[in-house]
Structures are given as structure tokens and as C-alpha cells.
Amino acid sequence: MVGVRLADDERARVPFAIVGVLLLVSSATLATTFLTRPSGGAEADGDAAMERADAAVTTALRAAVDRAARNAAADPVVTPANTTYGRVLNESRAFRDALELRVYLQARRALAGIEASAGEARVTADLPPIDGPADARAAIERVSLARTGNGTVSVAIANVSATLWRHDRFVDRRTTTVRFTSATPVLVAHDRVAEYERRLNRGPTEGRGLGRQFASRLYAWTWARGYAQFGGLPVDNVLGNRHVSLSANEAALATQRGVFGTSDDAGRRALGRARGRLLAQEAVDQTPGETGISPAQWTDLVLGEPDGSFADATPDVAPVPETGTPPTTHDDPVTVGVNESAAEAFRRLLDGDGGPTLERLVRRTYSASVRVHATSRQVAAEPALPARPPGPGWERRGRRTTRTVTVDSGSAPVPTRAPGSTRFLTFERVVTVTETTTTAWARGGNRTETERTSNRTYRVGVAVDAAPAALAPGSDGRVAGAFQPGGVLGGETPSAVRQPVRSVLADRGGPDAVAAAAARGQLDESPTVVFGPPPEDATDTAYLAAAALRDRTRNRSVTTTRGDLVTTATPAASLADGIAADRPELVSAGDPYPSVSARLRAAARAAYLDRLLDELGSRADATARSRDGADEALSDHGHSLAEADATMNASANTTRRAAPPVGTAGPAGQVSFEVAAAPSYLVTSELDTDRARAVRADGFAPLAARNVNLFTVPYGAAADTVTRQVDRGASGDRVALATGSPALAAMEHAGRVAENASARQRRARLRDAVGSSLASVRAQVATDLATTTTLAHSEANAAVAAAYEQYPTDAARAAAVVNGSLVPHIAHEAADRIATDGDGGAAPSARQRDELRLRARTALRTARQSEAARLPQGPVGDASSFLRDRQRSLVSAGARSALQNGVEGYLNGSSDEEVPHTFSGVPLVPMYSWVVTTNVWVVEVRGTYPRFAVRADRGTPAAPGGFDYSRDGAPVAFDVNGDGTAERVGHADRVAFENSVAVVIAVPAGKQGVGDRNGVADEHTSGWPCPSPGRWPDPTGPGTDAGAENASDCSTDLYTSGRTDDHVPRTPDRRVGTVATRAGSRVRRRPRRHRRGPRRGRRR
């Protein structure tokens, strides 16, 4: 066997390089396989850690949202601060931005503590940090919170990062948006409180809210007490601030119920105590100070509990009964009649004012319209030959034509008789018209003329027709027997009746002249009016017919409501429309009329109706002018009559519905609320920190109120505005006798109760002024009677003087002049003197007596309204001031007399010891057509809750009992950038409001009107115009807001003159309606006047 070395053996030899490459590739493939193969332990640990982290993140974020919500509800940011981080918040959604920022900060802190691990894997979670304002704004935008229908909050937090670590080495990062639903009611609680504040600031015409509830209660008090005063009860202050305060709190509790579904339990108890005390005061018409109770005692009595809290809540507190409906309200119907307008229209008829007098009316009725008319027909014609020269060489030098008319008897057609006319005469003629044309010729020095003749023949028929003249008003129907004896042309025989008609024909030259004129086309066929002698009793007939209609129309009336009578209704215009519609029936025109006297009566009625419609039109214009004056007076206080009308309508339709519950299928069921305000009842007196810790400083008045009675006396500035609109000639420094008369009567009564030297002096001055006015009235009435009747001036003056003597004092005479009871006495005295001095001593006829009464009535009315009869303001004002200062003693004296004479008689007005009052209110219209006395109170309130809290009954296992939301004016600060120092971001502004209502009342004319008689036209609480501040007093020094608002600032005027439109809600097209406002904003803008610094804690 031969030995072979391996190196030398080449059998099946593979190159070593190839083997090396093979080994290298095999080892690389094996290594790759080991590295990429799933490792069961490491991957499973990472997934498990991530899943655990996801669960932990959601749980942590839920808890973070709950903590942020509770913190935000405890210190809600209502307005942002003027600080670095306060300016990050959007002013229009400051609370939500602050809440989202709180959620982000709580979420970041919560995520910082999350670490989920599994095996060697570990997961952490985080959110980007906040290092400045830009980061804070970005953080807010990463959080989204939205209310759901069931009272929960839908939450979305973006940019939540989860990081996977292994052996403290980064493996992976995942960024997601975490979404979930939180059971916190923070948004619904905040929105309800914001809605409550909006409704507190909502005016009476702007929708459901405090304004409408407030107006409803103010109207109830005002109309109840106003009509009690008008009925004779001793009510000297119709609407006082005690009524305003109670009404404002009632309205606030009703508004709470409408927003939260419930109201403050302690507030209801306080309201019951306040109402009970007020009703006790009403029994003697006294204010708290006059009953010996100090403001502090009143506060203790009403509030009871030392501070409002949920611990004080008693759900079983029964609701306090609402203020009862007064017996008379603005919706009650009132009837307005023609009344004195009938007499004034009749006087105008007698005087010929605006139309013919009765005498002229009679003359026009007893007249005829006579028409002479003809028909003419040409029956023959002989035309003239053309003019020819006498021979050759003659030239025409001129031409003239002469016309001759020949009239002969003959037959001819007569014109047709017009309907309704009577034919008096016809005749027929043949008229020949001959025209001769003479032509002048010349040749050299020779002259000659030639003639040519033409003839035209006409047959002319002439008729003379007559009809009753259409001069008198009324329908121009046919009149039976118009041209018989005693008809429109008078006369006792047929020939006497025809004579005026024949005179028309004779005035035109007779029959032949008329026929010739007709043939020539020159007959004037226009009618000629002729007058006949009327019967002796024709004027009486017309007078009695118009007087009967006067008495009939005097009783015409329309019905409206008392409120509309002041604001929108114009009864005079409605009366005029109704009378105009019934005119045919009232005139009773005939076709045919049975007689001329029937036509006369219809004409008299028509003439009277024309005057009556004019008079009612003037009365409607005067009403509109006086309403403009009242509107002007209201505009000085930021209101208008249109708004007052809308307020009355809104207050009449006020509802007291509770808000529906929130949610039915939420994670915790329905959300209901409790309310706890501090104080629970907004008092007008000042509180201290012992009473309500939330005030933070003594001297805090939760409610400030003011009510201004515009027409306390009818000669104040507001009443002068109305009077000047109606009586353009009225002097601004004088007042009507209607004002001075009750003042003098009251001073006479006061002399028996509060007599002293001052009273005697004032009474003497007023008596002299009233006496001068009465003398002027007497002189004017006597002159009027002497002018319009058969009385001589001396007789008329004696008649008026004798009528005056029927009353023992000037006060009684003045009252008789004002109320018209003097009229029958004047008429009676005048009639007696006419009977004594007349022919044969004949007594005046019924017509004469009626006219005397009418003349006396209208003359007296004109005289008392004259400028000469007005009194100087000084004596009247001095007497009124004296009476108001002693009103209490006068009422007390009257009450003592009532106890002696019978209380019932005193209260129902039958007692002889009724206490006279000076006049209050303003007549609308202040003339003879005065049908209503009106007055207006402008009521303004401003209120602030030191603390207002609500609790939603949705708790959690960690925080059972409910969710509390509270606004107390505190500054809001929390650590935004994580430096350990809290940054000011905003303010938890207190719930504050202001509202204004114009309250209008109307009472029938007469008596002493309606209004405050305690001498205080502008009544306001001690805290007016500033209620408590809307925020805590701001600290001073470094770190405070730049330009921080002064917590104690407020404007002195809620509204200013000329800014009515800023208060009356209007739509963009200027119609009265609701104005959209953003959440948390003031309902009405008010001008910044008398400012002491920036606005306190409430933005516009």
C-alpha cells in the first residue's frame, strides 16, 4: 500500500477559499436568525406595561378632572385678571379657559406619578410643561370640555405621551388623545349661575327674568295701594322702598326657581318674615323706622340665620304665597265717554265756530236752487251772398256786421226736468236772428257801401226748475211739499211761493230775453239760490233736534283698559271713528224727506256731528300731546311709554314655572340643585362680617334701591312737561285752580288740627291767590253771558255773583268752579233775571234754559282754564309743603275723629271728617275732556350677593354629598408654571345685578288723583347708588393686577337724559324687542358718569 499525503491528494478536492466563504455565510445567517426571533419574555412585558399605563392614565385623568372641577367651582374665574397668565384667558369664556387650564395642570401632575411596569419593561406618562403664557395657551387648547345633555362633561385631552423603557433605556413613545366622560356637573352648575345672573339683569320686556317678575309685583303693590288711596284710605306713600325691597327679593327667588328648579330655603323663610312684618306695617302705613325698629333689628328679624349655608337648608320649607292680585289692575276695563265734548261741540254750533250758526243753517235750509235752462234748435237759414265790388277798380276798405233778434210765440221742445227738481215755468219761442253785413268800398276819392243779409231761425224751449238748495249739511234727498205754502220758500199761498222763482226769470230780462240769449248761445244756466222766509219756530226746531242728538251722543262710550288709557289708547279717536261709522243713522236723513222741517232737523244734526267729530279730533290730538309730554318726562329717566306699555303686558303674563331637571340617563341620574346665598334675603341695610363672612369688610349693603315719583305735585318739572305739551300758552310759574283748590281745602281742615302762626300765614296767602282766581273767573263768565245772551253785563255779573254766594267759603267756591257744580246755580240766576227783565216778564223757554246751562258750563270751563285764572306757584307750594310735613298728624287726627264717628264711615268715605289732600298725579288730558289721572314711579334696584352658592346633588364615593359652586368676589390664583407660587388669573365676581322698571298707574278723573303725599319724590336707600362691591378689595403692592378695578366703584346714575334707546330693548331694525347679549354681560349699557375709577368686577 502506497502512502499518500493529504496535501498531495487531489481527489474530490474543494478549494479552501470556497469553504471559508461557506463558513462565513453560514455563521452570519445563524446570527441573524437568533436576533430576529421573537423573544417571548421581553415583548410581552412591554405590551403589558403599556396596557397597565393606559388604565392608570385614564383613572388618573378622571381624578384630575374631578379635582380641577371642584377647584374651579370653589373659585370660579368669571373675569380674567390683567396679569401675565390672566391675559391668556379668553374674556368671552374665561371660566372654561380657566377650567381647561386647571384640568391640564391637574392632569400633568397626575401623570407625573404614573409608572406602570411588567418584567423588565416600564412605562411613564406625561404632558408638555408650561414655561410661559404661550405654553399656557397651548395647554388650554389641548383640553376640550363639552357639556352633555345629562349634566356630565365630555373630556378630551390631547398630546398625552406614554414612554416605554427597558433597563432605563428608551424603547418607544406613543402620543394619543385620551377621551372619556366625567360625571362632574361643573359646567351645568356654572352655566346655571351665569344664566341666573343674566336673568337678574334682564329687563321686564326682554324675556323671562327678574325684570318681569319685579314689574309684576310692583304693579300689584302700586295699583292696590293707589286705588286704596283714591278710595279715601290714608295712604300717603303709594310705593315705598319697603315694597321695592320685598318685590325685588320675591322676584329674585322666583327667578332662582325658574333657573335652578328651586330657591333658597333660607331665603323663603326670610321672605315670609319680611312679608309678615310689612303687612303689619301696612295696617298703619308706617315704615320700619317709624315703628321703633332700627335697621339692625330689621336685618336680624328678616335674616334670622347668621349666614347662609347648605347646612341651613330645609327642603320642607313651604313656598311663601305670592302677592295677591289687587282688586284693580291695569288690565281692568274702563269706559270713556263723549261727555263734555258733546257740550263743547254744541257751543261751537251755536257760535258758528267751524261752520254755520243755527240761524244761518235755517236760512240755508229754507232756500231753493233755481235753474233757468233751455233747448235751442235751428230750423231755417238764409245765408248772405258774398260781398261783390260795385264795379271795376273798387277796393274793400272795411266791414261791419249788425245783428237783430226777433222773438215770436211758437212751438218748441222744452228741456228735461232734472231729478228731484220741481218745474215752475216753461215757455216756447221762435227766435229769428238777422245779421246784416255792410262792406265799405273805395275807388280813388269815391266811397260807397254794399249790404248783404242772412237769417237764422231757432225754436227755443225754456224751463224754470227749482230744488231745495244744497247749502245745508246732510243728505240732499227730495223734500215732500218743498214748494208748497210753508215750504223751503215760505209763503202762505201758491203764488207767494212762486214769486221768488219768477223773480229769477225777471232778473234775466223775462222770457223773450232768455229765449234770445239761448238762441245766441249766451244763456247762463248756472243755478241761482233764492231764500224764503222761514217759519218763526224754525230755529227752535233746529236747536231741539241738535240738542237731542247732543244728549244722545254724550252717552256714547268706548271701552279700553286702564293701562292702555295711559300708554297707547286714544278713546277720542275711537269715539270719532264709531260716530262717523254711525253717521247715517244718527243724522236720519230721508229720501224723500217728509217735510222741510224734517230736512232742517237732519241738517242741524249733521252740522252738530261735524262739530263733534272736530272736537273729538282735537281731544285726540291733545291726548297725543300730553302722552308725548309724559314720554318726555320718562325719557329723562331712561324709559318710555312704549316700554311701559310692553312692561305692563309682560308683567300681566308673568309665569312662575320651575326649571326642568337636568338629565335622566346620566351616570348618576338627574342633576338637581340647592341654592344657598349669603345673605339669603337682600336687605338694604349694611351688613358686617359677623352677619355674613363673605362680605370681607363692614358696611356692605347687598341691595340699593331708588324710586322716583314723577308727578308728586302737578306743578313739578315732570308735570310741567306734560302741561306744556297740551296748553301751549300755560305759564311755567303758575298752576291751575284745580291744584290750588284742594290745597286751600286741606289748609282749612288743617286749621282745626295743626293751627299756628305759620299755618295762618300760609293759608291767608293761598286764600288771597284763590280769591283772585275766582274774581277772574267771575268776570270772564259774566262777560261771556252778556255777549251770548240777552242779559246786560250788569245782570250777568249779578247772576254769577249770586251763584257764588251759594257757597260759604272761597275753598268751597273754588271746588264748585273746578268740578262744575256752580253751573246750575249760574243758569238758574241768569234765567230768573231774563224772566224779570224780558218782554212781559215771560219765563225763558225750554230751549233758552238749555242754552243758558250750556253757555254757563262752557263759559265757566273756558274761564277756569285761562291764564288769568291760574295761581302763582309760591302760595300753593308753601301750603303743600306745610301739609306734607304734617301729614301724619292730620291723618292721626282724622283717625281719632273716625273712632268717635265710626271707623267704617271714615274708611268708606262717608265720614264728615275725611282728611283733604293736595292733588297728586297729572291729568291726562288736563282739560274738560280729562278722563284719567296718571302717575309714574321709576324704580331702580342694584344688588350684589356677597356669596352665591349652588350645590348639585351628584357626589362621588371620594366626595359624597354633592358638588358645590360658589362665587364670592375672591381673587383666583393657582400655580400655572410649576414654580411653587400661585399666579393671579382672574376673579370670582359676585353675582350682581341692576334693573329698572317704570310703573304706571291710572285712576279715574276727579278727587285728588294718585301719588306719594309724604313729600319725598325721590326715595332711595342709604346705600344708593352703590350696593356692595362685586369683588374683594384688591391688595396693593407688587404682584397685583395692572390697572386693577376699584372694588368700591359704581356709577351714580343708572340712566341719563336722552339715552332712552340704551334702555329700551330693540331689534336691529329698531323695533321694540329683545337684544341679544353675551353670557355674563350687562343687559343694559349705561353711560359712565361721575366715575371714581374703573368699573367694579363686572364687565360690559
Keywords:
19% strand, alpha+beta, 25 strands, 1100 residues, elongated, disordered C terminus, five-stranded antiparallel sheet, single chain
Verbal overview:
The protein is α+β, with helices and mostly antiparallel strands and 1100 residues long. Among the domains are: 42-184, no CATH class; 334-350 and 539-635, no CATH class; 367-387 and 395-533, no CATH class; 717-919, no CATH class. The chain is built from 30 helices and 25 strands. The strands form 7 sheets. Strands 2, 3, 4, 5 and 6 form a 5-stranded antiparallel beta sheet that branches. A hairpin with an 8-residue loop joins strand 22 and strand 23 (983-987). The chain is elongated.
Number of strands: 25
Oligomer: single chain
Q: State which percent range the strand residues make up.
A: 15-25%
Helicity, in percent?
40-55%
User: What is the first-to-last residue Cα distance?
Assistant: 122 Å
Put simply, the count of helices is 30
| Cα-atom radius of gyration | 50 Å
Structural class by secondary-structure content: alpha+beta
Biggest sheet record: 5 strands, antiparallel
Poorly predicted parts: 1-9, 27-39, 287-292, 308-322, 714-731, 891-916, 925-929, 1042-1049, 1051-1100
Average pLDDT reading: 78
Shape: elongated
What's the SSE blueprint?
Layout: H1 16-36, H2 40-74, E1 79-80, H3 94-112, E2 115-118, E3 121-126, H4 133-142, E4 143-147, E5 153-166, E6 169-182, H5 186-200, H6 210-230, H7 241-260, H8 265-282, H9 295-303, E7 333-337, H10 340-351, H11 358-365, E8 367-382, E9 395-409, E10 422-443, E11 446-468, H12 494-507, H13 511-520, E12 528-531, H14 538-554, E13 557-561, H15 562-567, H16 571-581, H17 583-587, H18 596-635, H19 641-652, E14 673-678, E15 703-709, H20 717-726, E16 734-735, H21 737-750, H22 757-788, H23 793-804, H24 810-819, H25 823-837, H26 846-864, E17 871-872, H27 873-885, H28 887-901, H29 903-907, E18 922-924, E19 932-944, E20 947-952, E21 963-967, E22 971-974, E23 983-987, E24 992-1004, E25 1018-1020, H30 1060-1063
Antiparallel strand pairs: 1-23, 2-3, 3-5, 4-5, 5-6, 7-13, 8-11, 8-12, 9-10, 10-11, 14-20, 15-19, 15-25, 16-17, 18-19, 19-24, 20-21, 22-23
Helix pairs in contact: 2-3, 3-4, 5-7, 6-7, 6-19, 7-8, 10-14, 10-18, 10-26, 11-14, 11-18, 14-18, 16-18, 18-20, 21-22, 21-24, 21-27, 22-23, 22-24, 22-26, 22-27, 23-25, 25-26
